[in-house]
User: Fold these one by one.
Assistant:
Number 1:
Amino acid sequence: MKTLRLLSIVFVGSALTLSACSEKEDGSEETSTTNADDVGTTDGADAGEDFGDATEDDSVGDESDDGETGGSLFVPDSDIPGVASCDVWSQDCPDGEKCVAYASAGASWDANKCVAVTGDAATGDPCTYGGAAASTDDCDADNWCWDVDAENAGTCTPFCEGTPDNPMCGPGQSCSIANNGSITLCLTSCDPLLQDCAIDGTGCFWDSTGFVCANATSDIPLQEPCGFINDCTPGLVCLAPESFPSCAGASCCGEYCDLSDPVCTIPETECTAFFEEGTAKPGEEDIGVCIIPA
């Protein structure tokens, strides 16, 4: 079995809606969302995330008025319908159960169901996952076992609070919404230039709405073909082939760059702002990506 993978939303950067945070009354923070469409899994530990459709646009990180993501270098996603038997936002299962995502057809997480809460492991604690079909774990009612490895060992990760239009997570986290809303988890935010994720084996990857810490799965080098957003070596990003002078796959690993000190190693590419002007959140204004200029 493989480690968890986030399925490709490979693009040259588009600001989906992550993180402008504001405080709730209880002191937690409100974060914007990751409208992800597909997290694929072939067994209990392999999963992926697919985000956003492409539209023709010169920007690297814009969002259209209707909520769909713009950007000319996206690799199109696939549509996988979700069938929910419970509401992961309201957690409307009977007492002693929680609403989680599961693979109803065995291929990818595509629906929600109630499972018994059998453990009391809290946020950040190690956990054991029962596989994508059963989707049981030993986390408490507020968490789901995520970042699962080949032995089905992962980390208890909290569900987002709020609603799809007003998701909420704690400080330093972003609400990632995947697989047509069947998965809603608060993931640690990070800086792709610093690669400041604290857990060994993880990297800072763009999940289509923000930069979050996720398992680094394949360590694919620069300009080699990739298929998942965390396939590339941490510090790289899976981009559409139009980003490069040559790319042997449907997408390839590209490099981030610092707009304040731009350096690109691939010939014919230039350091281009990741976000459209005025849309980057504080601290992310200098994030760029090396692409062929439009």
Number 2:
Amino acid sequence: MARQQFLYLLVRPVRLDNQCICMYRRVEVTKVKLKSLPCYCATLRQAARVATVLYESVLADSGLYATQYTLLQVLARVSDLTTTELADAIGIDQSTATRNLALVKKRGLIVDTRGSDRRERRWALTPAGERTVRKLNPAWEAAQQAFESRIGRAEAAALKEACHSAASKLVAS
């Protein structure tokens, strides 16, 4: 089942004491004319939403979201991670990781085992999860190529590096 491609478009920015609060509405991606936004946060989120639409379009038939496939990709590279380690590696909070892991586990793509104490969970791909990663990887790589061709290879690499560097610096401060 193909997922409709939507983007959340800025309706009205509101400034409160140097903070930008943005109101969004859901619109179909084909009808979007993006506006320059007033702050770094909104602009990064805008770019992330547009990129997510591109990547999720190649995952549509799998029923997975980009966030869920990212979990599978990480576990394919490094198995037996705790929920906290996985959340930290991706840069999401633990409750979001827990929700996404539960959804992927429900599909039979990952399995959890008890860690060093009864609250800790360690995660690994199931054989079905390994097959899913192998099956979806060519489509994911095609999305990578589409991203590079639209932005430019050098610009895409610079953007990736700049975003990683910014995230690392913001986490460290």
Number 3:
Amino acid sequence: MAGLRKASAYSKKKVTPYTRISKKRQKSFVKTVPHQKIVKFRMGNSGLHNKGKLPHELTVISIEKIQIRHNAFEACRQFINKKLENKFSDQYLFRVIPFPHHIQRENKMLTGAGADRMQTGMQLSYGKSVGKAAILSKNARIFVISLQEERNLVFARKIIKQVKSKLPCKIKVLYKNTAKTKTKIAPKIKAK
């Protein structure tokens, strides 16, 4: 197996978080740590948000308990940030909320030349670290998008709908006006 395993191999499994990393190699359970693929967790204009000029907020939450890999977060982050930057040019704030701490392991398989033999490995093998993931509980926040005007929410909602297929869980989008502090379900996209 040359590439990544599919997300379903990890996403809905019940796991114990495997995170123990130490500066002293003898004390750490995790000997090799995969590098973090998420480059930024906060994009856009933080100054406008701090001044209260971005009152309209869309929050993407997961409906189920799930593991989301760091490469899925990064794919969603790049897509959403590029669309928001092109449309609103620094008049928004986009945040990725979870930080992937859990290190995923894989028991690597070897196959013979003619595919007549397959090395199965030990029973209950511990495996080698291959990536990172965030373990999210039900109703945990994934992304937060803050915008200046209410009319921009329809565009942001369309972007979230396009990104939904990159996430391994069912999601819900909540709308909150921080000026009025009311939370409700985000408006639906009108069909043309």
Number 4:
Amino acid sequence: MHKIMDRKIRGKDLNIVGIVGKNGKSTIAQIHHHCYTELGKCSKVGSVVEFFVESYENSEKDVIIEASLCAIKGKKASYVDFDSLIFSNTPKDASLDELWTMKRPFIALPLEKTAIINIDDEHGTAFCNVTIASIITYAVNRPADINARNIKLAIDKTVFDLYYKGSFACRVETPYFGIYNIYNTLTAIAHLISIGYDPEKIAQLLVDLPQIEGRFDSFLTESGIRVVVDYGRNPEAVGAVLKSLATVCRGNIITVIGADANTTAVERSSIGKNALMYSKQVVFTTDNSRKEDAQSIIYDIIKGNVRQNYRICIDREKAIEVALNMAKPKDVVILFGKGHEKTQLIGEKTRFFCDKKTASYLVEKYDI
């Protein structure tokens, strides 16, 4: 295997799309991968440079890389010769160091490459200003090269009009929920247009997007309660999901949520604030508490939040049980934080735990 530090992975051998941003990187990568597959292209998704060395050796041509802050800070991303770079979003109250780190790959992007930038983000224009690459902008709330307008949200699909360079291009329908997923979808549309595909052809690829495990992954119980499992675990992600859900939910939103041990007290409080703001009822519980006291984490979540529409249940399975038994037809019970994960880290122990399997078991047990 090639040593990473010995050479760059050359864009002339691979078509490499990089994704930089706080939220949505995995979903964006999977949307691109699906589109490539439907177009007959052999593609892979990954997040570490070693993976791309393997792709190089296997002569795979299309690669999608999630460029995390750690990968950029550690300069691993600088060894990838990106053909296109996508900027999705920045963290709320991002530090100057975080912003500088996220900008670095765009600063290094050559003239002949492409930068795809979300200009609805408060820092989007700054990303445009630091790159010499060809720029394609996308947005929902302001004029851009790629726009979504006349949006219609439903819990099982999203429909919008696609505008390209100010003119109507086509109607787009996807099975993904939420405004935040419109942004994720626009990145793939922008990229595929940049490499020569027609908007109507792209729209056909998006109709049958596969369900991404743990990303607004839902099922309907026989009594008409919608159960949703979502990986959202930071304030921005939780707020975005619940805000969109509040616009389409015909019943009440009941949220089960905790916070990972690797979070600050400020982040925890913001998670609690967003959960309480958009939910009829919240059950605060354990996420991956690791070596930290679970009660202390929950105290940080509720500290400073004046709303009282919550219960505390340390045991996660019990918390899900409480939420499900609280729900009525047309309500949505949403389980945040674990998503696709199949384990829970508590103290020194790792135990099997899957939100979706647990919820399914409890629905059957109590005939919900």
